[in-house]
Amino acid sequence: MIRKAAVCNHKPLLVLLAILLWLEFPVLAASETKTPRTPDQTSVCGFYLHACWDYSYPFAVRKWQRQDYRAMFQLLHRIGYNTVMLWPVTEAIPAPLSKADAAELRAFRKTISEAQKLDLQCWLARTPNLLCEPELARSPWMDRNFFPHQVVVRLDDPLAREQFFAHREAITAVLNNADAYVTIDGDPGGYAGAKPADWLAVFAADRAAIRRHGTHPKRQLVIPFLWCGWGTKGVWQEPIEPFVEAELRGFRNEWERFAPTLLLPGRSTRDGWGNGRKVIAITENQNLSQQSVIFCYEAVEFEPTPPAPVLQFADIRRIVGQEEGHLRGQVRGWFANAQQPIMVLPNLFYFQRCVADASYLRRTDEEVLRELATLLGDPTDALVTAWSCLACDLAAIPADLPARLRSTPLRGPAAKELPGGEAGYREILARAVEGRRATLLGLASQATPQTVIEAVQAIGRWWALNRYAFSQTAGDTLNWDWIHWKFVKPLREACSRQRNALQSQRGELEHTLALAAALSPDGAREAINRLLPKDATH
Fold first, then answer.
1. Is the peptide bond before 188 cis (omega within 30 degrees of 0)?
2. Is the pTM of the predicted complex or chain greater than 0.90?
3. Do 357 and 379 share a domain, yes or no?
4. Number of domains comprising the chain
5. How far apart are CA 257 and CA 428, in angstroms?
6. Is residue 537 in some structural domain?
7. Residue 197 and residue 199: Cα distance in Å, rounded?
8. 302 in the same domain as 265
């Protein structure tokens, strides 16, 4: 069903606005955009900053300021990445493009330029056919939570498609300086029964828009992100192979129409989850590996996952070394991603090292962590333990570790390149360690009800720092599924062991959580009821 309210007939206005916006930029584009490398000049080693979900700074990329992007670009370049992909969620900008939204786009355009000035190619990610409800424009662009307000555009409806492409071009006319424009085949986007020709029309429209408005159109790529199959009933609801095969054949047959281009086939962490490596296998079977950059989605950070210092070195070794290792030297590059990169710096670091040098796959976890700690600066031992804390037992986490993290500034070469600042990063690690240690204390043989209350407090403080709420905005609700299971599982067990005594102290438990997690008394009461049901049979 087409949501006409979100795709009103403003084509003449949109096209005029696109032209006016483009005319505003020629001098600016020449002065602020560094001449980028092309994929022919270097193998891609890229990282995707997923900026859709709405939680707290600096966990959510969506909440970053320009200085945070700049810091992250510097860090990526230092580690060895040469490409960054951004999804600022232009889908959260309703049609027609307003003056206020155009101004925000112009500001974000400078972020793209800053990546290029730091010698990174900068790719822009988009969905194929999504808009948002017009009322979302009441708040600033970066304050909008897109998913609850998304609108699907039917590309087989000529009028809806024409209006959508005009709006997309108006946005491209402002963000005209990216080195590549990447469009996923679904998740999000798509609809049951969608035809490959309609998906290909998106790339044709993008190529035409780049020719008209691009700062370096002969080098700016359009790239299909092959993920879940265009036209399926829904994400992972039926076999995706026929759909991916059809869209890939169609794209290959029209390659020259879209060129310059590359393919970005993506894979999930493991078989049995998401798409496994099915899309990579299809790309191989169609002899297109040499035109592909492998997107190892979830190798660095599983998605969805609440913030936590989770090490995924084993997954990276398996994916890069074993399952995709035979493609080393064949493919055009490698990509990884994260929604909260500040939490997974060790994985981000290790992925690049393994892609660049296969011998690095044999490094021990501690060797990798110590090398990263050297980039950030002392205290090396404290950083290594903090990054590993979710795999540690109580004896391995010193009681004074949070205090040491808070009191010792990082002075290494990369310390100033942490989004949110190095002091903020140390506080994040300190609170994560406090949460892990407090829940383990709650399971200790000498634990008391007060020990468990303190564990609830520590976990409440951890959540208050990040306020992760999946694709929602948390408000006055704390869902325990929004906190990583490595924290919540031992907390639930500790509460179960002290159930009878804690039932008589529910008031203190609720008050403690309200203060720690910044919840109202009612919000804290609801959360405690879910953590410690009054009915002992639950």
1. yes
2. yes
3. no
4. 3
5. 48
6. no
7. 5
8. yes
